[in-house]
Write a structure and sequence with these properties.
Blueprint: H1 4-14, H2 31-42, E1 47-52, H3 58-69, E2 73-77, H4 85-95, E3 109-111, E4 131-133, H5 145-152, E5 159-163, H6 174-190, E6 198-204, H7 209-212, H8 216-219, E7 222-227, H9 232-246, E8 249-250, H10 252-262, H11 266-283, E9 289-290, H12 292-306, H13 315-319, H14 323-334, E10 340-341, H15 342-347, H16 354-358, H17 360-370, E11 374-376, E12 382-385, H18 390-400
Parallel strand pairs: 1-6, 1-7, 2-5, 5-6, 8-9
Antiparallel strand pairs: 3-4, 10-12, 11-12
Helix pairs in contact: 2-3, 5-6, 9-10, 11-12, 12-18, 14-18
Length: about 425
């Protein structure tokens, strides 16, 4: 008979919030994206950039595909302000077992004009006559894009994965990393006949231009894969696969709530489901059916965890929001139209929310300018959350927020 520890081990192999999915069968709804990435990896001179909102499964997609292809890869997460292009690629090359101390007798200078289609990357200028060295020694010179190519030349295919690349926006040397990485992509692509290695960039963005810059010569070799939120049916399929494999069932009302409120974000589905299961065990270690009460308690714990991890930068903003500001936030999160025109949203304010209606513009501007929680499009006049992952958690909380004064709130430590 299966022990509780064995069961929990199975559960944690399926529900993995904040980390990557282990098996392809749990990466439901990504069949086309998997094929697209496999196609890029099979073509000479092409690299990939995987973009989308936080929590949609970008890193999981990359690792599952590389695992299935049996492809050797090395990854780095851009999460430190001290990262430079040189430190980033030196560490990747070292991980790949490439000896950076090997030197050549000859040093051949290459100007960027010799690299086909000299480029200028938006957000990071590169002088047209900048000299790159082919010398394989860095005692006296810094690592540059041409060097990276020379180290990878005539070697078996190696994949470098640059994860959380959007962190580049918080770095003082953003231009240097962005422009040098762009040149590296271009140089390897131009020399695909003797360099099979590839680079995969992964980051939160709505377009590849936000991360790598804009130039036609880069766009030709860098294939963009945009991961949208999952469809409702895909979320339901995942939950049903999990039910069958672990022998635990979600009450139909609970399953519907997770599917509807997730808005297609796998991170939300994994985290809320896992905490709901844990709440079931706390209630009755022998039960195998997740009730509405388990879901309510599980969601509270999941929300706290999310605002301490993926959404930590917004925790204080939401926690200290005034009642009228929270009403505004919940109204936007719960709207069936999203993003939504600000005037349309105002018309949805309940009659009993007089303060919100009378001070609508002031509250909106505070949440946009001061608290940086919302974004207002200057072209469409539509409101949305700065981080889309906020919405499923705030929407769910709004739906459950029919609490009395002595009921724990989203960040009430007494709930523990």
């Amino acid at each position: 008979m299966e022990t509780i520890n064995e069961l929990k081990s199975k559960i944690h192999k399926i529900f993995r919030p904040g980390t990557t999915v282990l098996e392809r069968k749990y990466l439901v709804g990504r069949e086309q994206e998997i094929k697209d990435l496999e196609k890029v990896l099979s073509r000479h001179g092409e690299h990939a950039i995987i973009i989308g909102d936080r929590g949609v499964g970008k890193t999981s997609l990359v690792r599952i595909v590389l695992k299935e292809l049996g492809q050797k890869y090395y990854d780095r997460t851009l999460n430190t302000h001290k990262t430079t292009f040189e430190s980033l690629f030196k560490s990747l090359l070292n991980d790949a077992g490439i000896d950076l101390d090997i030197t050549e007798d000859e040093k051949v200078s290459k100007s960027t004009s010799e690299i086909k289609g000299g480029i200028k990357v938006i957000g990071g200028k590169i002088a047209s006559e900048k000299t790159f060295s082919e010398k394989h020694s860095y005692n006296n010179s810094a690592l540059n894009p041409w060097d990276v190519y020379k180290y990878l030349k005539n070697k078996d295919k190696i994949i470098f994965v640059l994860d959380e690349y959007d962190a580049i926006h918080d770095m003082a040397n953003e231009d240097e990393i962005r422009s040098s990485t762009a040149y590296t992509l271009k140089t390897i692509s131009d020399h695909a006949s003797d360099c099979e290695s590839k680079i995969i960039i992964v980051g939160v963005a709505r377009s590849s231009h936000e991360l790598i810059g804009k130039h036609l010569s880069i766009e030709r070799c860098l294939k963009e894969l945009f991961l949208r939120q999952l469809k409702k049916q895909h979320v339901l399929d995942f939950l049903e696969i999990a039910e069958e494999e672990i022998g635990i069932s979600f009450d139909n009302r609970v399953k519907t709530e997770i599917v509807e409120n997730s808005l297609g974000y796998p991170y939300f589905v994994h985290l809320v489901s896992l905490e709901s299961i844990e709440s079931m065990f706390e209630r009755d270690i022998n039960d195998r059916n997740i009730t509405w009460q388990d879901y309510e308690r599980g969601f509270e714990k999941a929300s706290k965890q999310a605002f301490q991890a993926e959404l930590s930068k917004y925790k204080s903003t939401v926690e200290t929001a005034l009642p009228s500001e929270k009403a505004f936030i919940y109204l936007l999160a719960s709207s069936s139209r999203y993003p939504i025109n600000r005037k349309t949203l105002k018309n949805l304010i309940p009659k009993n929310e007089k303060e919100l209606f009378d001070n609508y513009d002031l509250i909106m501007n505070t949440l946009i300018i001061e608290k940086r929680l919302l974004h207002l499009s200057t072209t469409t006049d539509e409101l949305r959350f700065v981080d889309p992952l906020l919405r499923p958690f705030l929407k769910s909380y709004a739906r459950l927020n029919t609490k009395t004064d002595n009921t724990p709130t989203l960040f009430d430590d007494s709930f523990e």
